Amino acid sequence: MKKTLEFKAHDGEIEDIALGPDNKVVTAGRDFQCCVWQQDQLVMGLRWHENLPGIPDKAYRYQACRDSGTFLGLGTVTGSVAIHIAFSLQRLYYVKEAHGIVVTDVAFVPESRPGRELLGGHEAALLSVAVDSRCKLHLLPTRRSLPVWLLLLLCAGLIVATILLLQLAFPGFL
């Protein structure tokens, strides 16, 4: 093996590292940060006190991370588990103290046939393992969204309504 890149990712030790799509790397460090990197450039980061204000950052830190491509799964030293959208780090799922103590690893259920059976109608499934000798399955409910046809219909209605309002406000507009 040959080293191709070296940079300072965290102040202190790195607790976990995960490879993501598009050559991105996710790191969780003892400095209370979780970072997404592209080569040696910070793409985005989570700091504990910004993510969960009101909870002292010295008592909590990210311990484990996994990036499925769409989602980022995180475990903490306090046993909490979270799922974020990978590209924006918006939190979609959070269970405070899902385990009694340190989450040592998290992993997304693969999208294979048996994995899809576990998912059921859910968008993602994350397994968490902790020092409390338990493995838990966390299911992310499918987010509701508007069908594309309904969105297009609403846009067309908005355009027609705008034209009618302009015609009323300015007779002879058309």
UniProtKB/TrEMBL annotation:
Oxidoreductase among keywords: no
GO biological process, one term: endoplasmic reticulum to Golgi vesicle-mediated transport
Localization of this protein: Endoplasmic reticulum membrane
Topology with respect to the bilayer: Single-pass membrane protein
InterPro entries, sorted: Sec12-like, WD40/YVTN_repeat-like_dom_sf, WD40_repeat_dom_sf, WD40_rpt
Superkingdom of origin organism: Eukaryota
One Pfam family this sequence matches: WD40
TM region(s), chain numbering: 146-170
Keywords from the UniProt entry: Endoplasmic reticulum, ER-Golgi transport, Membrane, Protein transport, Repeat, Transmembrane, Transmembrane helix, Transport, WD repeat
GO MF assignments: guanyl-nucleotide exchange factor activity
Cellular-component GO terms for this entry: endoplasmic reticulum membrane
Protein name per UniProt: PREB protein
Provenance organism: Ptilonorhynchus violaceus
